[in-house]
Design a protein that fits this description.
- Helix content is 49%, strand content 20%.
- It is of the alpha/beta class.
- The chain has one domain (2-221).
- The two termini are 18 Å apart.
Length: 222
């Protein structure tokens, strides 16, 4: 039953990332977004990723994605982006990021192929901000540092979110408003999607994600 519930939790985020991965990168990791050649498209590697981590402790993540992209002005370099969307505090989250990073690297250890790990945290612990995994002994040192975005940081940027045309801005507005009021602001925020000129198909896709987030937040409050 837990696996089924986790799968249900994964689905809307994964569907949204499948369709709107460029928008996701532009919103959360704009510097990386600018260096990617989006005209070449991108390739999701979900099946390959699940094979890599099938025997690992998945923890309380909301979604994980492995996406292949190409850099601008470089026909030789391929970047494998490993994205983790984490819903709750997890003491060994940084270690898991390292384990996944290394397993991906080991599987795709090819010339001119790099692995980049990114994290988005949706928990409510303001002081929990994992950005690296490291240890050292007798002169031997290992260290992985990864970019991390905390959704709570947008609490003080509501006006900027309201002015942002990226669909993930509306998703974050919904998330923050729900945590603040404990009410369901879906209809109000979905109206924002139409006001911004998004297509009906896009509104339906994002509505599924927003509606799912409301259900998840209620589950986490219990």
């Amino acid at each position: 039953m837990e696996q089924q519930t986790q799968g249900e939790y994964d689905s809307p985020w994964k569907e949204a990332l499948d369709v709107y991965f460029p928008e996701f990168m532009a919103f959360f990791f704009p510097d990386a977004h600018q260096e990617i050649d989006w005209e070449k498209g991108y390739e999701t590697l979900d099946k390959e990723f699940q094979q890599i981590v099938q025997d690992a402790n998945l923890g309380k993540r909301l979604a994980d994605k492995l996406v292949k992209v190409w850099l601008k002005n470089s026909q030789e370099t391929v970047i494998l982006i490993h994205t983790e969307i984490q819903g709750q505090y997890e003491s060994d989250f940084a270690e898991r990021m390292y384990v996944y990073h290394y397993r991906i690297y080991d599987k795709y250890r090819l010339k001119n192929t790099e692995v980049v790990s990114l994290a988005v945290l949706g928990d409510d612990k303001k002081k929990w901000r994992p950005r690296k995994y490291s240890y050292s002994r007798w002169g031997c040192q290992l260290r992985l540092k990864f970019p991390m975005v905390k959704l709570l940081k947008y609490e003080k940027n509501w006006e900027l979110l309201a002015e942002n045309n990226n669909p993930f801005a509306v998703v974050i507005m919904t998330y923050l408003k729900s945590k603040e009021t404990r009410k369901n602001p879906v209809l109000t925020l979905v109206r924002l999607l139409y006001e911004r000129g998004y297509s009906r198909e896009m509104v339906i896709q994002l509505f599924k994600l927003i509606d799912w987030m409301m259900i998840l937040l209620e589950e986490l409050k219990r």
